[in-house]
Amino acid sequence: RQGNASFRKFNRRNERSPSSSKRCSARVHVQVFPVMSKSMPPPSKGLIYAELLANIRQISVIAALETPCDTATKVELSGNGQEFILQHGGESTTLTLPGRIVLTTQLQKPALGRKELSWRLPLDSPPTRPDAEDAQSNVAPWSASNLREDFEFLCRDCGAVVIGKGVIKTWKDLPSENWAEMMDFWHCHKPDVPEHERTHEHESNGAQGPEELDTENSVATSKGYGANTKFAANSGTAFIDITTFLLSPSDCSNLEPLDNQTTPALEQKVAIRPIHCKGCSRNMGYFDEQSDGVKIWKWSIKLSQANPHWSSGSRLPQMPSISSIISTRISSVLQAQCCSRLLLHPLEWKPSPAASDAMNKMSPSLLSLWILTPTLRYSATNSSAVDEPNLSPGKLAMKVFWKEVTEEEAAKLMDTVEEVPLPSEAIQQISACLHGSAVLLPPSTRKFQGWDVGLLERWEEE
User: Fold this and answer.
1) What is the pLDDT averaged over residues 255-261?
2) Bias category Basic and acidic residues: which stretches (predicted)?
3) Suppose 301 and one of 19, 40, 153, 431 were both cysteines; which one would form an S-S bond, judging by CB atoms 3.0 to 4.6 Å apart?
């Protein structure tokens, strides 16, 4: 009441004195702020995720909304059957599907009051050859067929030249990692060596004698499939596998080993020396004593902007993601070992069942992976990637269940998983990729019985 009385007195004074009103209006500045209503709903655009189920020729679509469905919520397909359109909360969201839907498909109406909706939509086209090839492909970026003599590679961080233009005259793809093992197996079970290839004939009670064994081993070695056959680094030639370039040290620039530091490589059973960039100290690879060469991680370098990104009709990425490289490595392990459970661990790590709590806290993270789908196509409204016009619709990826484990937990898994040794920083980047991929998935699909669910990008050639 007292405030209202003062306000009335103020108005009466202003009515009696127009000049004072002018002075007051000149001094008083009124600012109006918008008031947010408590009943105002949050943004309702939501998330739409679509996944191609190639085996049953359907596309699974899940829409996760911020607010429950109401009578205004509607869904429809575009005229060409390629786009899924959701109208909710006054907004329209369109998602390009990873395949074309049968045009006569009748979409189920959204259930009122629900925040998550799902559909199974039939594909219009029959199974195609690219679908089958995607499921079996282990193509990694920068294969030998796409690289030329005039290509130049730089450090991905500081841009220092690592492989100069014209240094590499020949690019060659290395065979799969289990190639030597298969050749050894064939050598042990092959038919007898032809008579003209034997230099000594020596038999003892029907068994092969040492002279004959030495002769057969020398023949195998000369043909390239002996147990002691290896690839040696040669100047002017680069050998390429899924994750590395194998080069002669003389063909590399701006690289240096860390003094007095070696890492025991579990695969080679020998010590390797990490190699870093002189300009920024980035881990670039390691010196491989078996081949007397340098192995450079593909995710540590980039293709020079001066080089054309098209070669032999294929698109060359300037900086392929580490996810696209590691996922190809994982896929090759799956096909070679027929095992869907893997452990990503640092090169220097060795299992220790009696690891202390302090060691578990200080040790780098180890990733336990359970591969659910090695190859799938998906599309999501939260994806920042842009569809390439010459590629199949949707993005190619690998769906995995994953979790970070301690050294003690990892040691208990050794009998049930395949090991994939990688640099510690590479494992950290893969962990970050898996964490980041969660935003593409509907909230209800991000967890499964204690596992996190994530997507790893797969490389796809045009």
Assistant:
1) 72
2) 195-204
3) 153
Closest CA to 391 of 314, 302, 294: 314
pLDDT value of position 390: 46
Q: 270, 296, 319: which is the final residue of a domain?
A: 319
pTM for the whole structure: 0.77
Q: Are residues 402 and 432 in the same domain?
A: yes
Residue 326 sits in the same domain as residue 434? yes
